[in-house]
Amino acid sequence: MRRIRYEMWLFVALASVSTLVFGATRQWQSGKLIDTEQQKVKEGSTTTYNTDGQAKTKSNGKTDYSQNTTATTTDDVDTYEVYTIQGADKTYVAREKLLFPWSKPANVTVGADVKYAIDGRKLYILDDDQKEHKASIVKTSLNQAQ
Questions:
Q1: Confidence at residue 43, expressed as pLDDT on a 0 to 100 scale
Q2: How far is it, in rounded angstroms, from Cα 133 to Cα 13?
Q3: Structural domain spans, the chain
Q4: CB 139 within 8 A of CB 93
């Protein structure tokens, strides 16, 4: 009897944890991809200093020191893919940050239907390869009644 209670309690605990960890399933909607473009945004710059020093000993035993410092400044640029998706009631503009130079944006076709889900200020796109891409919503507008 005790073992059955333990197993029942364990089952309930695992079910609760899996719901918290995996969350609810996304509410996928169909929309039309109106536009997509890649943006490069300057987020600041980084300056690197390189100093070379040299010591020369003179014939009288004294040492002369000299140094040369060079500064190199590079821009910190982030790359975003911006998507415009027209849903049934609203049109969303969202941008996905491409974290690495080899990161690929969603494999989608402008003018084609696309699956998307909204979760707060995040928009999830299901691309043609069935991969999820997470983007931040930057603009929402109501569609005109036709």
A1: 85
A2: 31
A3: 2-142
A4: yes
Report whether 56 contacts 98 (CB < 8 A): no
Question: Of 96, 97, 99, which is closest to residue 123 (Cα–Cα)?
Answer: 96
Q: Which two tokens stand for residue 130?
A: 């069935």
Q: What is the pLDDT of residues 84-95, one digit of tens each?
A: 999 999 999 999
Q: How far is CA 29 from CA 22, 83, 89, 145, in A?
A: 20, 15, 11, 19
Query: How much of the chain is in helix, strand and coil states, percent to nearest 5?
Result: 15, 60, 25
Q: Is this model's pTM higher than 0.90 or not? A: no
Question: For the chain, what is the largest distance between any 2 Cα atoms, rounded to a whole number of angstroms?
Answer: 98
